[in-house]
Design a protein that fits this description.
Blueprint: E1 3-6, H1 16-26, H2 29-32, E2 33-34, E3 37-38, E4 40-43, H3 50-60, E5 69-75, H4 84-95, E6 103-108, E7 115-121, H5 135-152, H6 169-175, H7 181-195, H8 199-208, E8 212-214, E9 222-225, E10 231-234
Antiparallel strand pairs: 1-5, 2-3, 4-6, 5-7, 6-7, 8-9, 9-10
Helix pairs in contact: 1-7, 4-5, 7-8
Length: 235
């Protein structure tokens, strides 16, 4: 089954700029293009005007503050033969859980594992109520995800361990083909820096791609931890 998780945004760090940055990041053409077309959809909104759609709903109900959006990621197993269009459809069906909410759904095909980002407006455009994801709602969402994957015949997630290592000569050469974990890390950092509104938004965008970031003013280096658990320092 696919794994579903929500990106953690610290209290008080969400803003209009952060919301726009996340939307632009997940809609990148280089990440979402498959067979000549984009794997981008809008549930109750239009991708071309998704930022305005979200904001207009908030302004209509005078709820332009606090939690601005939720950022959910649905990931399939590394190296699994998942058709990107099927993965996108699975994400669309999962996004329908948020009835009455506007949801931007973008499937990324540029990594070793197919994964979809869902950006969910925190304000319901039909009722004006704010969305709150308690433990019970998250568990229900996980069950729905499992049911969708089973129904669609999508693969079961079997994580494999990867040992930390330096960049060998062979890995250096394959880096040019985008197969190096260090090169993938550097590319992800560059992309997240480009779209992040501030430091907290950068850390959250990195988390959405599976990278943990330890960035403290008291420490000389920033430490990144890859999805496989490999650590790398950057000053």
């Amino acid at each position: 089954m696919a794994i579903v998780h929500f990106v953690n945004y610290k209290k008080g760090t969400q803003s209009r700029a952060a919301m726009r940055g996340v939307m632009l990041y997940v809609m990148q053409e280089m990440k979402t293009t498959w067979e000549g077309g984009p794997l981008i959809s809008g549930i109750n909104c239009q991708p071309q005007s998704v930022y305005d759609d979200f904001l207009n709903t908030k302004l209509l109900y005078h709820k332009d503050g606090g939690v601005m959006f939720y950022h959910m990621v649905q990931s399939f197993p590394k190296g699994a033969a998942v058709d990107p269009r099927q993965a996108h459809e699975a994400a669309r069906r999962l996004a329908e859980y948020f009835d009455g909410c506007e949801v931007l759904v973008c499937t990324h095909v540029d990594r070793e594992h197919i994964h979809s980002h869902c950006v969910i407006n925190s304000v319901n455009f039909e009722t004006g109520k704010k969305l709150h994801m308690a433990k019970e709602q998250i568990q229900e969402l996980m069950r729905r995800n499992d049911a969708i994957c089973l129904e669609m015949g999508l693969p079961v997630f079997e994580p494999t361990a990867q040992q930390a290592r330096g960049m060998s000569g062979a890995e250096y050469h394959t880096a040019l083909k985008g197969q190096s974990w260090k090169l993938r890390l550097m590319n992800t950092i560059d992309a997240c820096m480009k779209y992040a509104a501030d430091k907290d938004a950068f850390v959250s965008l990195m988390a959405s791609e599976g990278y943990a970031v330890r960035w403290e003013s008291s420490r000389k280096h920033i430490t990144y931890t890859t999805p496989a658990g490999t650590k790398c320092r950057d000053n």
